[in-house]
Amino acid sequence: MGGRYAQALFDLANDENKIAAVEADLKSLKAMLADSRDLRVLLASPAFGAQDKSKGLAAVAAKAGFDPTTRKFLGLISANGRASAIPSVITAFQALSAERRGVVSAHVTTALPLSADQARGVSAALRQALGKDPEIETHVDPSILGGIKVRVGSRLFDASLGTKLDSLKFALKRA
């Protein structure tokens, strides 16, 4: 469902020549969702009606200074009772925008934050492997213990220490 809404928003933003502005707004909203448990609960909980969700999103959009196209879209999606789909809409919109720019989106997970040199090295390796410029979104997950996980589209390249230890444990159990 998120893909259809994202495609509609992308087409509208393209017609209005506002893809960059809408993408920036959605990126900001994604960060807000990651930082605010209350906002996540508002969007996901069936305890709040469409009108409450619409008012909450309108307040967030106004406070953040979102583009009118983004504001109208958020009002529409919440009025249609689809506010819980906003995270998937954001992901799908970012993929459409990246495809248009000729770049590929990569989600990189490491146990510790990457330094600037490490980030450049990962970017260069992905550029060489994929043949396209990567847009890297980094996440820190201490549970992987070490190494790196890279997700590009539906493909996952897992060179994490946690996965290697799990594989070794499984192999030892079979032996």
Write up this protein.
The protein has helices at residues 2-15, 19-35, 37-44, 50-64, 68-79, 86-101, 116-130, 161-174; strands at 103-110, 133-140, 147-152, 155-160. Helices cover 63% and strands 16% of the residues. It is α+β, with helices and mostly antiparallel strands and 175 residues long. The mean pLDDT is 91. The longest helix is centred in the N-terminal third of the chain and has 17 residues, at 19-35. A 4-stranded mixed β-sheet has the order 2-1-3-4, sandwiched between helices. The chain has 8 helices and 4 strands, in the order ααααααβαβββα. The protein has 2 domains: 2-98, Orthogonal Bundle (Peroxidase, domain 1), CATH 1.10.520; 103-174, 3-Layer(aba) Sandwich (Glutaredoxin), CATH 3.40.30. Strand 1, helix 7 (116-130) and strand 2 (133-140) form a beta-alpha-beta unit. Helix 1 (2-15) packs antiparallel against helix 5 (68-79) and helix 4 runs antiparallel to helix 5.
Topology:
Layout: H1 2-15, H2 19-35, H3 37-44, H4 50-64, H5 68-79, H6 86-101, E1 103-110, H7 116-130, E2 133-140, E3 147-152, E4 155-160, H8 161-174
Parallel strand pairs: 1-2
Antiparallel strand pairs: 1-3, 3-4
